[in-house]
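Design a sequence for this backbone.
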Protein backbone atom coordinates (compact mmCIF):
# COMPACT_ATOMS: atom_id res chain seq x y z
CA UNK A 1 0.00 0.00 0.00
CA UNK A 2 2.82 2.36 1.03
CA UNK A 3 4.74 1.44 -2.10
CA UNK A 4 1.75 2.42 -4.26
CA UNK A 5 1.45 5.74 -2.44
CA UNK A 6 5.12 6.44 -3.15
CA UNK A 7 4.94 5.40 -6.79
CA UNK A 8 1.85 7.44 -7.52
CA UNK A 9 3.40 10.93 -7.18
CA UNK A 10 6.51 9.66 -8.96
CA UNK A 11 4.48 8.63 -12.01
CA UNK A 12 2.84 12.06 -12.07
CA UNK A 13 6.29 13.66 -11.95
CA UNK A 14 7.58 11.51 -14.84
CA UNK A 15 4.50 12.21 -16.91
CA UNK A 16 4.67 15.95 -16.31
CA UNK A 17 8.36 15.94 -17.34
CA UNK A 18 7.50 14.51 -20.78
CA UNK A 19 7.67 17.21 -23.48
CA UNK A 20 4.35 18.94 -23.89
CA UNK A 21 2.67 18.16 -27.18
CA UNK A 22 3.22 21.02 -29.52
CA UNK A 23 0.58 22.59 -31.66
CA UNK A 24 -0.08 26.05 -33.02
CA UNK A 25 -3.37 27.80 -32.54
CA UNK A 26 -4.61 29.31 -35.81
CA UNK A 27 -3.73 32.99 -35.92
CA UNK A 28 -7.41 33.87 -36.39
CA UNK A 29 -8.28 32.32 -33.02
CA UNK A 30 -7.51 35.38 -30.92
CA UNK A 31 -11.04 35.85 -29.60
CA UNK A 32 -14.40 34.09 -30.17
CA UNK A 33 -15.36 37.12 -32.28
CA UNK A 34 -12.29 36.82 -34.52
CA UNK A 35 -13.05 33.12 -35.13
CA UNK A 36 -16.61 34.01 -35.95
CA UNK A 37 -15.65 36.73 -38.39
CA UNK A 38 -13.38 34.31 -40.35
CA UNK A 39 -16.18 31.73 -40.48
CA UNK A 40 -18.68 34.37 -41.60
CA UNK A 41 -16.28 35.61 -44.31
CA UNK A 42 -16.78 32.26 -46.08
CA UNK A 43 -20.58 32.31 -45.88
CA UNK A 44 -20.94 34.13 -49.21
CA UNK A 45 -19.48 31.05 -50.91
CA UNK A 46 -20.56 28.25 -48.56
CA UNK A 47 -24.21 29.15 -48.00
CA UNK A 48 -26.47 26.44 -49.37
CA UNK A 49 -23.71 23.91 -50.02
CA UNK A 50 -24.52 20.46 -48.66
CA UNK A 51 -21.81 18.32 -47.08
CA UNK A 52 -22.00 14.76 -45.83
CA UNK A 53 -19.49 14.14 -43.03
CA UNK A 54 -18.65 10.54 -42.24
CA UNK A 55 -16.71 9.95 -38.99
CA UNK A 56 -15.08 6.54 -39.58
CA UNK A 57 -15.73 3.46 -37.36
CA UNK A 58 -17.64 3.64 -34.03
CA UNK A 59 -20.04 1.46 -32.03
CA UNK A 60 -18.92 -2.16 -32.35
CA UNK A 61 -15.90 -1.00 -34.35
CA UNK A 62 -13.57 0.47 -31.74
CA UNK A 63 -10.58 -1.73 -32.47
CA UNK A 64 -8.19 1.03 -33.60
CA UNK A 65 -6.51 2.20 -30.41
CA UNK A 66 -3.55 4.55 -29.92
CA UNK A 67 -0.11 3.12 -29.25
CA UNK A 68 -0.32 4.17 -25.56
CA UNK A 69 -4.07 3.47 -25.38
CA UNK A 70 -4.84 7.17 -24.87
CA UNK A 71 -7.22 7.49 -27.81
CA UNK A 72 -9.67 5.36 -29.79
CA UNK A 73 -9.69 6.31 -33.47
CA UNK A 74 -13.51 6.17 -33.68
CA UNK A 75 -13.84 8.79 -30.92
CA UNK A 76 -11.26 11.18 -32.39
CA UNK A 77 -12.89 10.91 -35.84
CA UNK A 78 -16.24 11.85 -34.29
CA UNK A 79 -14.79 14.79 -32.36
CA UNK A 80 -13.15 16.24 -35.48
CA UNK A 81 -16.35 15.63 -37.50
CA UNK A 82 -18.54 17.44 -34.96
CA UNK A 83 -16.20 20.45 -34.87
CA UNK A 84 -16.17 20.48 -38.67
CA UNK A 85 -19.98 20.40 -38.73
CA UNK A 86 -20.02 23.34 -36.36
CA UNK A 87 -17.68 25.44 -38.55
CA UNK A 88 -19.53 24.59 -41.77
CA UNK A 89 -23.03 25.24 -40.42
CA UNK A 90 -21.92 28.57 -38.93
CA UNK A 91 -20.73 29.48 -42.46
CA UNK A 92 -24.20 28.75 -43.87
CA UNK A 93 -23.61 25.23 -45.22
CA UNK A 94 -25.97 22.30 -44.65
CA UNK A 95 -24.34 19.29 -43.00
CA UNK A 96 -25.46 15.67 -42.78
CA UNK A 97 -23.64 13.07 -40.68
CA UNK A 98 -23.32 9.29 -40.92
CA UNK A 99 -23.24 9.20 -37.10
CA UNK A 100 -23.38 11.78 -34.30
CA UNK A 101 -22.61 9.37 -31.47
CA UNK A 102 -20.60 6.23 -30.81
CA UNK A 103 -22.85 4.02 -32.93
CA UNK A 104 -22.29 1.19 -35.41
CA UNK A 105 -22.89 2.20 -39.04
CA UNK A 106 -22.01 -0.18 -41.88
CA UNK A 107 -20.07 1.09 -44.88
CA UNK A 108 -23.12 0.36 -47.06
CA UNK A 109 -25.32 2.51 -44.80
CA UNK A 110 -22.82 5.36 -44.83
CA UNK A 111 -22.96 5.51 -48.64
CA UNK A 112 -26.75 5.04 -48.73
CA UNK A 113 -27.29 7.84 -46.19
CA UNK A 114 -25.04 10.15 -48.19
CA UNK A 115 -26.97 9.46 -51.41
CA UNK A 116 -30.32 9.97 -49.69
CA UNK A 117 -29.15 13.24 -48.14
CA UNK A 118 -28.57 14.77 -51.58
CA UNK A 119 -25.23 16.17 -50.37
CA UNK A 120 -22.87 17.81 -52.87
CA UNK A 121 -19.63 16.54 -51.31
CA UNK A 122 -18.79 13.52 -49.13
CA UNK A 123 -15.98 13.76 -46.56
CA UNK A 124 -14.92 10.72 -44.58
CA UNK A 125 -12.78 11.42 -41.51
CA UNK A 126 -10.19 8.97 -40.22
CA UNK A 127 -6.84 8.73 -38.47
CA UNK A 128 -4.08 6.54 -39.78
CA UNK A 129 -2.00 3.63 -38.44
CA UNK A 130 1.31 2.07 -39.31
CA UNK A 131 1.53 -1.00 -37.07
CA UNK A 132 5.10 -1.87 -36.21
CA UNK A 133 6.45 1.54 -37.25
CA UNK A 134 5.93 4.02 -34.42
CA UNK A 135 7.99 6.73 -36.17
CA UNK A 136 5.71 7.26 -39.15
CA UNK A 137 3.19 10.07 -39.22
CA UNK A 138 1.88 12.44 -41.86
CA UNK A 139 -1.39 13.94 -43.05
CA UNK A 140 -3.01 12.51 -46.17
CA UNK A 141 -6.20 13.12 -48.13
CA UNK A 142 -7.42 10.39 -50.44
CA UNK A 143 -9.38 10.37 -53.71
CA UNK A 144 -10.74 7.49 -55.76
CA UNK A 145 -8.82 5.74 -58.57
CA UNK A 146 -5.92 7.09 -60.64
CA UNK A 147 -5.60 9.24 -63.74
CA UNK A 148 -6.32 7.19 -66.85
CA UNK A 149 -8.69 4.84 -65.02
CA UNK A 150 -12.34 5.29 -66.11
CA UNK A 151 -13.38 5.65 -62.45
CA UNK A 152 -11.04 8.59 -61.83
CA UNK A 153 -12.60 12.06 -61.82
CA UNK A 154 -10.28 15.05 -61.33
CA UNK A 155 -12.77 16.96 -59.14
CA UNK A 156 -12.11 14.50 -56.29
CA UNK A 157 -8.40 15.26 -56.44
CA UNK A 158 -9.14 19.01 -56.50
CA UNK A 159 -11.07 18.74 -53.22
CA UNK A 160 -8.34 16.51 -51.72
CA UNK A 161 -5.64 19.05 -52.65
CA UNK A 162 -7.37 21.95 -50.94
CA UNK A 163 -8.14 19.99 -47.77
CA UNK A 164 -4.68 18.45 -47.62
CA UNK A 165 -2.90 21.79 -47.93
CA UNK A 166 -4.77 23.53 -45.13
CA UNK A 167 -4.93 20.47 -42.87
CA UNK A 168 -1.17 19.86 -43.10
CA UNK A 169 -0.54 23.55 -42.37
CA UNK A 170 -2.95 23.61 -39.40
CA UNK A 171 -1.32 20.51 -37.84
CA UNK A 172 2.21 21.62 -38.80
CA UNK A 173 2.99 18.23 -40.30
CA UNK A 174 3.93 17.30 -43.83
CA UNK A 175 2.06 15.16 -46.29
CA UNK A 176 3.32 11.74 -47.23
CA UNK A 177 6.44 11.65 -49.39
CA UNK A 178 4.67 8.96 -51.43
CA UNK A 179 2.96 11.76 -53.36
CA UNK A 180 3.99 15.24 -54.48
CA UNK A 181 1.29 17.17 -52.66
CA UNK A 182 0.21 14.77 -49.91
CA UNK A 183 -2.95 13.64 -51.71
CA UNK A 184 -3.18 9.92 -52.37
CA UNK A 185 -5.09 7.59 -54.64
CA UNK A 186 -7.01 4.86 -52.82
CA UNK A 187 -5.65 2.44 -55.45
CA UNK A 188 -2.32 2.63 -53.56
CA UNK A 189 -3.95 0.63 -50.76
CA UNK A 190 -6.44 -1.44 -52.79
CA UNK A 191 -5.35 -1.56 -56.46
CA UNK A 192 -8.25 -1.28 -58.93
CA UNK A 193 -10.74 -1.16 -56.03
CA UNK A 194 -9.94 1.67 -53.67
CA UNK A 195 -11.87 2.42 -50.48
CA UNK A 196 -15.47 1.27 -50.28
CA UNK A 197 -16.95 4.68 -49.44
CA UNK A 198 -15.02 6.49 -52.18
CA UNK A 199 -15.79 3.80 -54.78
CA UNK A 200 -19.50 3.83 -54.05
CA UNK A 201 -20.19 7.48 -53.21
CA UNK A 202 -22.60 9.00 -55.72
CA UNK A 203 -21.14 12.50 -55.32
CA UNK A 204 -17.56 13.87 -55.25
CA UNK A 205 -15.86 12.29 -52.25
CA UNK A 206 -12.61 12.34 -50.29
CA UNK A 207 -11.27 10.51 -47.25
CA UNK A 208 -9.03 12.35 -44.80
CA UNK A 209 -6.43 10.56 -42.65
CA UNK A 210 -5.51 13.50 -40.44
CA UNK A 211 -2.46 11.97 -38.74
CA UNK A 212 -1.30 8.71 -37.06
CA UNK A 213 -2.48 7.33 -33.71
CA UNK A 214 0.36 4.76 -33.85
CA UNK A 215 2.91 7.54 -33.23
CA UNK A 216 3.18 8.33 -29.53
CA UNK A 217 3.64 12.06 -29.93
CA UNK A 218 0.76 12.38 -32.40
CA UNK A 219 -1.43 10.27 -30.15
CA UNK A 220 -0.85 12.72 -27.32
CA UNK A 221 -1.80 15.60 -29.60
CA UNK A 222 -4.93 13.71 -30.67
CA UNK A 223 -5.98 13.34 -27.04
CA UNK A 224 -6.24 17.14 -26.69
CA UNK A 225 -9.61 18.62 -27.49
CA UNK A 226 -8.25 21.87 -28.84
CA UNK A 227 -6.01 19.95 -31.24
CA UNK A 228 -9.05 18.07 -32.60
CA UNK A 229 -10.66 21.45 -33.20
CA UNK A 230 -7.57 22.59 -35.11
CA UNK A 231 -7.79 19.47 -37.28
CA UNK A 232 -11.39 20.39 -38.14
CA UNK A 233 -10.31 23.99 -38.78
CA UNK A 234 -7.74 22.83 -41.34
CA UNK A 235 -10.34 20.73 -43.18
CA UNK A 236 -12.89 23.56 -42.97
CA UNK A 237 -10.54 26.16 -44.42
CA UNK A 238 -9.45 23.84 -47.22
CA UNK A 239 -13.06 23.15 -48.17
CA UNK A 240 -14.00 26.82 -47.99
CA UNK A 241 -11.10 27.85 -50.24
CA UNK A 242 -11.98 25.05 -52.67
CA UNK A 243 -15.56 26.31 -53.00
CA UNK A 244 -14.32 29.92 -53.28
CA UNK A 245 -12.20 28.94 -56.30
CA UNK A 246 -15.45 27.98 -58.06
CA UNK A 247 -16.70 24.80 -59.70
CA UNK A 248 -17.75 25.09 -63.38
CA UNK A 249 -21.46 24.32 -63.75
CA UNK A 250 -22.45 22.55 -66.97
CA UNK A 251 -25.92 22.51 -68.56
CA UNK A 252 -27.07 21.17 -71.89
CA UNK A 253 -28.92 23.79 -73.94
CA UNK A 254 -29.76 21.78 -77.05
CA UNK A 255 -32.62 19.29 -77.29
CA UNK A 256 -31.76 15.84 -76.05
CA UNK A 257 -34.10 14.11 -78.52
CA UNK A 258 -32.68 14.59 -82.01
CA UNK A 259 -33.39 13.44 -85.55
CA UNK A 260 -29.95 13.76 -87.10
CA UNK A 261 -27.21 11.18 -86.65
CA UNK A 262 -24.51 13.88 -86.64
CA UNK A 263 -25.98 16.52 -84.35
CA UNK A 264 -24.33 19.69 -83.08
CA UNK A 265 -24.89 19.95 -79.35
CA UNK A 266 -24.66 23.09 -77.23
CA UNK A 267 -23.49 23.20 -73.61
CA UNK A 268 -23.48 26.18 -71.28
CA UNK A 269 -20.73 26.38 -68.65
CA UNK A 270 -21.05 28.93 -65.86
CA UNK A 271 -18.02 29.92 -63.81
CA UNK A 272 -16.97 33.24 -62.31
CA UNK A 273 -13.26 32.81 -63.12
CA UNK A 274 -13.88 31.67 -66.69
CA UNK A 275 -13.06 28.35 -68.26
CA UNK A 276 -9.78 27.01 -69.56
CA UNK A 277 -10.68 26.19 -73.17
CA UNK A 278 -7.84 23.68 -73.47
CA UNK A 279 -9.34 21.62 -70.67
CA UNK A 280 -12.64 20.76 -72.38
CA UNK A 281 -13.01 16.99 -72.60
CA UNK A 282 -16.12 15.53 -74.21
CA UNK A 283 -16.84 11.84 -74.67
CA UNK A 284 -19.79 10.35 -76.53
CA UNK A 285 -20.36 6.74 -75.50
CA UNK A 286 -16.86 6.78 -73.95
CA UNK A 287 -15.25 7.88 -77.27
CA UNK A 288 -13.26 11.10 -76.98
CA UNK A 289 -14.34 13.87 -79.38
CA UNK A 290 -11.26 15.46 -81.06
CA UNK A 291 -10.55 19.10 -80.13
CA UNK A 292 -11.18 20.18 -83.76
CA UNK A 293 -14.83 19.25 -83.36
CA UNK A 294 -15.29 21.44 -80.28
CA UNK A 295 -15.78 25.23 -80.30
CA UNK A 296 -15.97 27.39 -77.18
CA UNK A 297 -17.32 30.93 -77.13
CA UNK A 298 -16.75 32.86 -73.93
CA UNK A 299 -19.09 35.46 -72.49
CA UNK A 300 -18.75 37.40 -69.26
CA UNK A 301 -19.91 34.77 -66.73
CA UNK A 302 -20.42 31.78 -68.95
CA UNK A 303 -19.14 30.00 -72.02
CA UNK A 304 -21.01 28.19 -74.77
CA UNK A 305 -19.48 24.98 -76.05
CA UNK A 306 -20.60 23.59 -79.40
CA UNK A 307 -19.52 20.15 -80.48
CA UNK A 308 -20.33 17.65 -83.20
CA UNK A 309 -19.32 13.99 -82.88
CA UNK A 310 -16.78 13.09 -85.56
CA UNK A 311 -18.75 9.93 -86.38
CA UNK A 312 -22.37 9.11 -87.18
CA UNK A 313 -24.44 8.16 -84.17
CA UNK A 314 -26.75 5.18 -84.44
CA UNK A 315 -30.44 5.54 -83.71
CA UNK A 316 -31.18 5.11 -80.00
CA UNK A 317 -29.66 6.25 -76.72
CA UNK A 318 -26.19 7.76 -76.27
CA UNK A 319 -24.29 9.13 -73.31
CA UNK A 320 -22.30 12.34 -73.30
CA UNK A 321 -19.71 12.93 -70.62
CA UNK A 322 -18.13 16.38 -70.15
CA UNK A 323 -15.27 17.70 -67.99
CA UNK A 324 -14.22 21.37 -67.92
CA UNK A 325 -11.65 23.13 -65.74
CA UNK A 326 -11.91 26.76 -64.66
CA UNK A 327 -9.09 29.30 -64.64
CA UNK A 328 -8.44 28.62 -60.94
CA UNK A 329 -7.75 24.98 -61.81
CA UNK A 330 -10.98 23.45 -60.44
CA UNK A 331 -12.76 20.83 -62.53
CA UNK A 332 -16.50 20.49 -63.02
CA UNK A 333 -18.39 17.82 -61.06
CA UNK A 334 -19.24 14.61 -62.96
CA UNK A 335 -21.58 15.51 -65.83
CA UNK A 336 -23.24 12.71 -67.81
CA UNK A 337 -26.39 13.16 -69.90
CA UNK A 338 -28.38 10.89 -72.20
CA UNK A 339 -29.34 11.96 -75.71
CA UNK A 340 -31.66 10.07 -78.04
CA UNK A 341 -31.48 9.88 -81.82
CA UNK A 342 -34.78 9.01 -83.45
CA UNK A 343 -35.69 8.46 -87.08
CA UNK A 344 -39.26 9.58 -86.39
CA UNK A 345 -40.08 13.12 -87.43
CA UNK A 346 -40.51 15.29 -84.35
CA UNK A 347 -43.83 17.06 -84.44
CA UNK A 348 -44.76 20.11 -82.47
CA UNK A 349 -47.31 19.36 -79.73
ZN1 LIG B 1 -10.04 4.57 -39.85
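Sequence:
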Amino acid sequence: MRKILLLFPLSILIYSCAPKPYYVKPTEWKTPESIDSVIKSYSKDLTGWKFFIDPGHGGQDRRNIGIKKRVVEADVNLKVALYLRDFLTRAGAIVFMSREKDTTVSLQDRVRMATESGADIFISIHHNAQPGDPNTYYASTWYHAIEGDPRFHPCNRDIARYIQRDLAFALRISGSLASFDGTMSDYIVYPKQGFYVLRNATMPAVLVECTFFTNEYEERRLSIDEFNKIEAWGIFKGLAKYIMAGIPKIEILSDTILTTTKPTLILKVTDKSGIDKQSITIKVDSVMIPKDFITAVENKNFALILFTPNFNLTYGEHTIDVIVRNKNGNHSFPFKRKIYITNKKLTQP
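The longest helix spans residues 225-244.
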